[in-house]
Amino acid sequence: MLVIKKIYDITQLDALKCQYLSTTTAALDGMWLCGFLPMATHFGFYENNTLVGYCCINADGYLLQFHLDPQCLLQASELFTLIVEQNSAVIGEVKGAFVSTAEPLYLSLCLDNYSTHQTNALMYQQDLSAAPFQGESIAMDVATDAQLSDFVQFTMHAIGAPEVWLTGYYQRLINRQELVGYWKRGKLLASGECRLFDTVQTEYADLGMIVAESERGKGIATQVLNYLISCAESKGLTAMCSTEMANIGAQKAILKAGFNACHRIVQFSVNS
Question: What is the CATH number of domain 3-114?
Fold first, then answer.
């Protein structure tokens, strides 16, 4: 059996994470890959003191990624079962898992071990074979440092995300000029993100948008999305995005803009 140890410096996993991404069948959601995964607790799998794999668990006790070097795959099923059945003293409690349908081995192991699952989010990618969508866009402004608090408060109110996390997340986007806003009479009514990847999936731009509740149903989401698509195309990148299963309004706007939803993010859990 492989030895499990907590990883304190996740840069140790850079090579294994690139190896993992090479096994995926489509681009992974940028928010999960670059936002949620770095905040998770990582554990390494060692064979004869050599790091051969890893997994990561978020603060809520959900597994977010699981990987073993191809030379050790014969041990994958036994190791995964040990972890999800909470028999690892190092890892401890595991309530379930999140995995996309673009992660074949990890998904298969989840199907083997969990009794309950549901779709958490839809993953979209721009359909480059379709005719370009000539929809109306909206004028948006690149966010500044002085507007950081406005964006944080706007998003806290709109979706209930935690302030501390949002502050760090939006500051990074502002520094990279990847956050834009639609303002009217000094009030922020919509935000948009055009997130770029630095070392992996560099041919994609990952889009995100939030519209104030008071402005929904007016076509603003579609216009924001069109603006973000134009930003991606101006950089020669393919646009991708995701939305929660329950967000029907966003799904309509995304489909209208020429995206396909071929993949899902699935939540697995143990029957209570």
Answer: 3.40.630.80
